[in-house]
Amino acid sequence: MTKTEYQHPLMKGYWDRLDCGFGKVADVFEDCMAEALAVLSLDDVNHYLDAAGTLGKMGRGADPVLAFLEKWPAVAAAAGSDMLAPVMAFIGAMQKSPNSQAIAPFLQTLGAVARRLQSGEQLQHYLDIAADLMKRTTGSIHGHHSTFPSPGLPDFCEQAPRLVGLLSISGLKNWVDYGVRNYRNHPERQKDYFGLQLADSHAVLQRERHGTLFADVERKLDLYLRALWQDGDQLVPYTTAFDELRKPIPYYDKLGMRIPDVLDDSDGADGVISGLDRYRAILAHMVGHRRWSKQIIADNYSPFQRMAVEFFEDCRIENLLIRAYPGLRRIFLALHPLPDETECDPETTSCLRHRLAMMSRALLDPQHPYTNPILLEFTARFHATLEAGTSSTREMADLALAYVTRTRRQTDQLAKVHFDNTVIDYRDDNRHLWVFIEDSDDEEFFDDPSKQNKKPAEIQSLPPRHYPEWDSASQTYRPDWASVYEALHAKGNPADIDKLLLKHAALAKQLKRLLDLIKPQEKVRIRYQEEGSDLDLDVALRSLIDFKGGAQPDPRINMSHRTDGRNITVLLLLDLSESLNEKAAGGQQTILELSQEAVSLLAWAIDCLGDPCAIAGFHSNTRHEVRYQHIKGFSERWDDTVKARLAAMAAGWSTRMGAALRHAGHYLAPRRADKKILLLLTDGAPADIDVSEPDHLRADARKAVEELAAQGITTFCLSLDPKADEYVREIFGNHWRVLDRIERLPEQLPLLYLSLTR
Amino acid sequence: MSNKDQYLVKTEPFYQAQGREVALYEAAYGARLPVMVKGPTGCGKSRFIEYMAWKLNKPLITVACNEDMTASDLVGRYLLEANGTRWLDGPLTTAARIGAICYLDEIVEARQDTTVVIHPLTDHRRVLPLDKKGELLEAHADFQLVISYNPGYQSLMKDLKQSTKQRFTAFSFDYPPPELEIGIISRETGLAEGTVAKLVTIGQTGRNLKGHGLDEGISTRLLVHAATLIKRGVDAGDACRMALVQPITDDPDIRATLEHAIDTTFI
Ligand SMILES: Nc1ncnc2c1ncn2[C@@H]1O[C@H](COP(=O)(O)OP(=O)(O)OP(=O)(O)O)[C@@H](O)[C@H]1O
Ligand SMILES: [Mg+2]
Predict the structure, then answer these.
(1) Which residues neighbour B260 within 8 Å (Cβ) at sequence distance 6 or greater?
(2) Spacing, Cα A340 to ligand 1 middle (Å)
(3) Are the beta carbons of A277 and B260 separated by less than 8 Å?
(4) Where are the domains of chain A?
(5) Min CA distance, A754 vs chain B (Å)?
């Protein structure tokens, strides 16, 4: 092709102005111009052509011109045509420094970047960041002059659309900064960092992402489920950063509720919904299913029918949720698409999704704009079924089938499906709704071999003590039912505990201040006493003056002394069952490690206060083997022997709580103290492998607590199980607390003790 | 100075029974058995006793106990006067003399050595020794002792001795179920039941967090406060924040959760 082929004089004029000889450019020129003319003013068109001409003469071949011609109109549309000067200035800088090989990648992604940033100002920030990256990574290798191009810049430009999609400008700046600082002198690694090939670059990306991070709102979400819905489950985030095409969908299963690790605020026609409220919407929707949805058999339905059932069922539970909290409607609607009735062409496209999305909107939105009579009819039928109560999944399935039948079209079968405006992203994938009868893979049940092979380890300790166990079914005790073996805990290295204490030095200092406040003084003066051992001169004088002046004197002119107000003995009983080996949610440490730190701090704190304190751990392997491990006795000092035992703390087996409580009680009961406290630290309900009925051991533990109370011992339980409410109340009455954030155990356990004994 | 009348409850207090407590209390009073009312703060314990005093037409003397209270504050003391001394009965003594119901509110707040002065009044002797005065006061036939006690206190130090507890019959109160609570608040404040129902929903969300950062849930008393504010024209959201959220927590996460409950309940 040559320039002579342009017939239209105007187009020929443009081509001449461009003054460019590349054939590849000529191929697309007319298309580019069509787009440019639609977006740019006449003046800007001339600038556009001049700029492209300049790019063509830079000696980098056709690629930069091509990229520029194709992308600029979109950039100008998104960020304004006056960005041309700064963009060209940056390109000039690349050309001058030895970075011209980055020009083409820069231009190729500029359109996508501008579309995401949506303003000239933001785009300018992007240019500044890129320029900064270029300046700091060019030619600095081993102190040479600017002779080496920046290794990272081309990769950075290639990744830019994705980066600006995930990061705010300041996040992008931090991310670039990190790469420059750490990889300035490693050309290969620098390239990998900016090309998102290093674990590091992902990690920093994750840290700098915009939106509401799950990690930041986790506790709020736990509280939300508990307070508003009395529900609660493990919340498990999945990553959304690296799936551009297929966004994962929330779901829940036996292991927990799966939700995105980050959510942006959504800015729809109905107003802004914060990331936090989007999370709440997702969770509320799941709660709705968990409360009101029943599984149905999938095999009888076609995929279309299943899809319709899901839409209707989703709307049913959302209506029920809105009944409980009417304000949810606003949130759901703001997140729900409002498809235009005419936007799907049923002649060429499968419109079922589109129809169902409108149906769904209508079922939630009393102000929906639709007029289709079938839609209106089904909206009315839907609300009629819900009027009397909560309706059911079954009824929704029937309604959905009727709807599919009534609205069926041949073209629903077409491969081209209308997706726009049909995705409702706060709804889970409904996997819980269906059971498939065929192909069910039977779960195999077999006993955990690790448990069976464990030989009853040799028990070298005192002879067992036998304790009764309460049988709530018959309301009688089973005599001598549980055998408790007590032994000294094995020893480890006491320095490990000192290290842990050192790690928490700041916390310890804080505690120390508190401790000093409540630490008993040798003698405490009690003032304002009518009778006492000494006259309180200040008060006496005041009273005398009142009396002489004819006023009623205060008769409490004496004072007395009391020695040491604190008379507390405490036994700290630790659940050392297998589950402690699990990692605490959201952290690297196991619950056991956290407990170890917490107990060390507490033991240290109690030692400072001077309260007599004993520490023991327990676990069980059937009623024949309840192990009670002595860690610290009341009379033992907080010294290396005790620290060594703490250092060796290990977890295994089950939790036969009642027997352990009784055994601990037999040590506490004979102590002489005003207040005897048994503080139990546990992460779960009582359980043992020889008991299948969970209520049994709970009832027994409750009985044990009552027995202790009768002996003047107060039992308090600190539970690490966020779902403990159901049973801790039953066992411990009012004396319990659940720690929602296990990672704060080291701080919370000593504080709890202090507040309990205040 | 038998000013018995001043302690009578003149007009009928509104009390909504939650169960059979009215009849049971009458039986306990009939036998002059000491009564303990247990329950979380603001659930209607004081109101119940006030109502019973009115119903039985007996004087009611209420003492709010505190840490600094001494036995003399309950029993009485000598006062110095220009020409000698004069004995002044404390509220417990007054009640025993005139045959009143003596209500010791939040008894656990008082020091344990103070608590023991009630012991001789609570067994078959029904006497109160006034050591300093050298008098052994026999309680009036109508006298009854009532104490209140909130077992939800998290401090283990504030607990009644077994020997004290075991002298009482006990009523255990809790926040009423939603329908009842709606009725109570609506009746108490004149606010429409529809709006009150929303307040009760929010109250429930707070109670669900007990033990998870809240020591006590949102009490009926606080809900009454919120309803009163709304009745006076305060915006519902503001009233809830002011009466239900701010008083009970400084934890930002819990605040955010309760505020969300408010925002999605009142629209
Ligand atoms: N059953 C009820 N009938 C009528 N009003 C009630 C009832 N329960 C609670 N209230 C309302 O709640 C308010 C608080 O009740 P009250 O003062 O009796 O609580 P309390 O249990 O004594 O609390 P505290 O332990 O803090 O002293 C009352 O003023 C009243 O408005
Ligand atoms: Mg009260």
Answers:
(1) A224, A228, A277, A280
(2) 55
(3) yes
(4) 9-208, 212-448, 494-517+567-757, 523-563
(5) 9
Alpha-carbon gap, residue A358 to A342, rounded angstroms: 11
Tell me which of A143 and B8 has the higher pLDDT: B8
pTM recorded for the entire structure: 0.66
Q: Which pLDDT belongs to residue B186? A: 96
pLDDT of residue B117: 87
- Nearby residues of A667 by Cβ (< 8 Å), 6 or more positions away: A571, A614, A634
Shortest-distance atom of ligand 1 to CA B44: 18
Verify that B141 and B44 share a domain, yes or no. yes
Residue A117 is predicted with a pLDDT of 81
Q: 286-325 in A: which are within 8 Å (CB) of B?
A: 324-325
Element (H, E) at A396: helix A393-407
Stretches in chain A below the pLDDT threshold 50: 1-4, 439-461
**Gap from CA of B13 to ligand 2 centroid (Å):** 14
The pLDDT of residue A523 is 63
Helix and strand tally (H, E) in chain B?
A: 12, 9
Q: Say what the pLDDT of residue B153 is.
A: 60
| Interchain CB distance below 8 Å, B79 and A675 | no
Which CATH architecture does the domain made up of A494-517+567-757 adopt? 3-Layer(aba) Sandwich (3.40)
Of B242, B245, B243, B239, the closest CA to residue B258 belongs to B245
Single out the residue in B154, B172, B190 at which a domain terminates: B172
- So what's the pLDDT on residue B102? 96
> Final residue of a domain: which of B114, B137, B172?
B172
pLDDT digits (tens, 9 = 90+) for B65-77: 887 788 888 998 8
Helices and strands: H and E segment counts in chain A: 28, 20
Provide the residues around ligand 2 (an ion) whose CB is within 5 A.
B 46
Do residue B68 and residue A528 have CB atoms under 8 angstroms apart?
yes
| pLDDT one-digit tens code per residue, B108-136 | 888 777 888 889 999 888 999 988 888 89
What pLDDT was estimated at residue A221?
Answer: 94
Q: Which of A220, A223, A755 is facing B155, going by the closest CB pair?
A: A755
Pocket test for ligand 1, best of B15, B20, B46, B185 (most atoms within 8 A of CB): B46
Q: Which residues pair with A630 in a beta bridge?
A: A488, A616
| Average pLDDT value for residue range B212-233 | 93
Asked if A58 and A22 count as a contact pair (C-beta separation under 8 A), the reply is no
* Residues 538-557 in A contacting B (C-alpha not used; CB under 8 Å): 547, 550, 552-553, 555-556
- Contacts B79 to A, Cβ<8 Å: 552, 555
ipTM above 0.85, yes or no: no
The Cα–Cα gap between A19 and A29 comes to 12
Residue A555: its chain B contacts at CB < 8 A? Answer: 77-80
Print the domain residue range for B78. 2-172
Residue A695 has a pLDDT of: 87
Together in a domain, B78 and B114: yes
pLDDT score, position A365 = 96
Indicate if B25 and B154 belong to the same structural domain: yes
